[in-house]
Specification:
The complex is a heterodimer of chains A (220) and B (862).
Chain A: E1 10-21, E2 24-36, E3 41-46, H1 52-60, E4 67-72, E5 87-90, H2 102-112, H3 116-129, H4 145-157, E6 163-167, H5 175-190, E7 194-198, H6 202-206, E8 210-215, E9 218-219
Parallel strand pairs in A: 3-7, 3-8, 5-6, 6-7
Antiparallel strand pairs in A: 1-2, 1-4, 8-9
Chain B: H1 3-12, H2 19-26, H3 31-69, E1 78-83, H4 88-101, E2 108-117, E3 120-126, E4 145-148, H5 149-155, E5 162-164, E6 170-177, H6 198-201, H7 208-213, H8 216-219, E7 223-226, H9 228-234, E8 239-244, H10 254-271, E9 274-275, H11 278-322, H12 324-332, H13 337-370, H14 380-405, H15 418-421, H16 425-438, E10 445-448, E11 451-454, H17 456-486, H18 493-504, H19 506-545, E12 549-554, E13 568-573, E14 577-579, E15 586-590, H20 592-598, H21 603-610, E16 621-626, E17 635-638, E18 641-651, E19 664-668, E20 682-687, H22 692-701, E21 706-711, H23 713-717, H24 723-757, H25 759-768, H26 772-805, H27 825-851
Parallel strand pairs in B: 3-7, 4-6, 15-19, 16-18
Antiparallel strand pairs in B: 1-8, 1-9, 2-3, 2-8, 5-6, 10-11, 12-20, 12-21, 13-15, 13-20, 14-17, 16-19, 17-18
Chain lengths: 220, 862
Amino acid sequence: MRAAADLALVGAVGVTKSFRRGPETVHALRGVDLSVGAGQMIGIAGASGSGKSTLLAVLCGWETPDAGTVRFGDGAVAPLDLPWADLALVPQTLGLLDDLPALENVLLPARLTGRNADSVARATELMERLGVGHLTGRFSDQVSLGEQQRIAIARALLLHPRLLLADEPTAHQDHGWGDVVLDLLREHAASGGACILVSHHAQALARTDVVLHMTDGVLA
Amino acid sequence: MSRTHRRAKARGGAAFTLPWLRAPILLIRRPVVFAAIVAATAILATATGSGPLFLSTIGTASLASQAGQSCPERTRPGMTKLVPPIGVGAVTRDGIAAMKRAQLPDSYSVAVGQAQVQSSLIHLYARSGALDHVTTLTPRGRPGAWVPDTFASKLGVRPGATITTSDSKQILVAGIYRDLAPDPFTLPNLSPYWCAWNDLLVSTAASDAAIAATPPDQRQGPVLLTDSSTVSRVASGPVRVSWWSPMSSQTSALGAFDVADDRADVAAASVGAEHDLHLAESSRIAHTAQSGISGSIVPIEVAGVLIAGLLVAGAGFFWSNARRREIRLLVARGVSPPALAGKAALETALPAAVGAGLGFAGTQYLVRAVGPASVFEPGAPLRAFGLVVGTLLLGLLVIAVIGGLAGRERTTGRRASWVSVVPWELLLVGTAVLIAATSLDTSAVTIDHTVVRISALVILYPLLGATGALLLLGRLIGLLLPAVGRSARRSPAAAFLALRRMSRSRVVAIGLIVGTALPCCLLMYGSTVRNTVRDEVTQKYQTNLGAPHVLQVYGVRKTILDLHDDATQVVVYDQDVTLGDNPNATVLGVDPTTFRRFAFLTSGQRDALDRLRSPAAGRTVPAIIVNGAGTKPTALLISHTRFRLEPVATSAVFPGLRNGTFPLVVVDRSALADVDDATERTNQIWTDNKHYGAARGLIAANKKYSILFELTSKIVVGTTGLLPVTWVFGYLQALAILIGVVALAGLVFGLAARTRTRRVSYVLSRRMGMSKLTHFNSLLIELGIVIGLGWTAGSSLGLGSFGFIYRRLDVYPDLPPGPAFSLPTVPLVATGVVVLAVVVLAASATQALAQRTRPAEILRLE
């Protein structure tokens, strides 16, 4: 969905990003405009290598665009400095801490910001909803990949982030758990949070408000 | 068919493409794995090769030490013959020829004859190059004999003059040189070149005491430096001709000396000379030192090889980890474990051989550079090479086994087998305790013909006990860590992350603790043993000698000398002295004011000294009772004079206590004024290095007194070689440092590997609010706890092990004081600083590595 960037929770205008790969220049993003408002759930589809992950990295602040701007809210805080409560992430690599049991992994954003005690109930509830409530004491190498992904989603949702970036959040889920995950993401949007969901799954994309297609760095 | 394959076939068929031909070079494309295997096998080769090389230098080092302590010529193969003067030239030439025939080329000869000049017996000394070892006082160039200045002055002769012997033979004076008679009269003051000729330079030079007891005008048998023809012409009796082969322990090993000594024996027999037995005696001592040490070195070396073997096993795991995808694929295609083992061995053979070669070369260099001596016995490098090859093959076998096991399926949730539950390390601890208990009554060090021998048990028991105790500690920590992890919930973020990492990575945490503790333990143990033996000998020496210089003075009687604050006078009564009912006491009469300035005193002994004072007439005598346990210390009888003592202090030891069996009474010297004049007493002048010259000058200036002799450390503690203690425990310390380096390398590689695998977690944790400081602090806490715990446990265990045996480390049980446990402050602080630095540096490096992660990369699957 395109809208005026200044009304959006997050807005990207004319974002261009290219990389050198040997003698070749890869144009990952070509003048991308994107605006996501609170309560919206945006789906991004596209072939592998089309620039989806680069777009998420630019929105996170992990990549600096060659041209164009990315603003979050009123622009007072750069995307890189946004706390987990403003911008949470579910990467494909999940990034669970091997040393922590599932519950502690979910609670980690709260612990690192001093809100641990307040968040235990929410963490437990999220884990129950996602079907991993019985795994609170398990470590990541003691649960399946799908369960790990649901733990990562619980962790992303713990602090009610204003924007959630989810990269293939249903990639390791069966049909039933995929629906549960998407239900939660929809509820998150419904409660005022925004969500950008990158996926190849039609089932997932069907649950979003708008689906944008990324082709050779162009978002349409 | 690929181009490579076609090319290979063209060269010689399919054989060139077979896996066993490609495998050995495959790792070249994996430089990190290649380097890890090179490093591990290099350390294995170092640990293996160092033992035989180190041992082969011991004998030579002992020989060198003896030559350094006494005289190089005492360790050279040689022979001696007494010949009539007329035959000196021919016999000398025959002797040189005989030495050459016996394969002792470049031998040299010394001819010494005597003659009488006026009232003096003179020595005629003919040796090529002798003039280069004296200070000539007149120009060179004239023929004839060189005369010492004291004798030239006595005769009133100058160069060109003639000296006539009592049997009317003429000696032309070629020049004057400075007299070689040592001043002060102590044999060590002689130059090594002349040390075999003490008896010429000091006519009665059996000892310093004998020198001092010889009247000065008879003390020097003037040595005239001349040529063999003059000796032949002038000597009035038989001439002593000696031949030596100029061997040096810097270039020849002990074995070569033994061979050369046998040859000198053959040469001596061929010309009817006497074989010089000095080298044989020195060699016997050297062999004793070598055999005494080998028993101690072997367990250390075995421990080193085992530890290096663990490192090789670690390198094997590193290889299997690097090849894990390929191994899974091969297993899936039905490749058997033996085939995987073969693959592992073939792939790692090249870097292992490179590492072994580097390690072997490095060991030779290291042992030569920092070992006891720089030359090896001829067969030692070959023996070391054989051992290195053997352990290399064993190392490859270990890697092969690990490679073969890498294909095993891992089942999760499997119960631990009983093998892993039983605390096998208790066996090590139990064995160590058994050894310690059975050897409680035996001395840890013994002296065998002046060489200190260290009981191998003293090495074996701490190695076994420390390893077992540390493994047991590791097991206990392993059991406690889960609880530690659970208890971290209420901790601040940094501590929470650190404790959780520790509890989850139990193997890593235990490995780090034990890896730190073991080298600290061995280092502390080795350092403490070395320091204690050294301190013990120093304290014995200081106690027994009393002061840096103790001069026994003759002619003083009961006079109190005016020593101008350059020394203190001590009166010793050690004959006919009874303390209580002990008839073997010694009395030391001191001037407390000056005594405290020159004696080796501890602060406690100084306090005791302060309580000594001159008694009023008829009152009791304040006294310090030393080594007087079991004695009633109130009645003192010196010859016929009785004293009532008032013990003001008791002490186990005190400067001047020369025998640990009998008591010593220290009193104010003035209290002894009433002792019968006829009573045997000794007057000693105690001084320090700074005032030594002035004190001697004062005594020399007064013609009534003369120095009878000087007490030296050699007289007190003898010439026992303590070097074996230094060598053995130096080797143990080297092993400890090797383990420390291995542990450090393991720590760095481990942290780097862990950080690489956790970069996604790190980036996301940062996003979740973890500050860089929190992450750094968590690393500091984690490393601080495990490495700090390792340091504490290792150091405590090292010191505790030493605490069991230190009382048995008495090198000279008859001399007080006995060995004392002294905390090795320097090694303790040094290892503490190193540990602290390692913690900070490792945490910083890990932090830096984590921060190098590009966050955007984590969005892409690997």
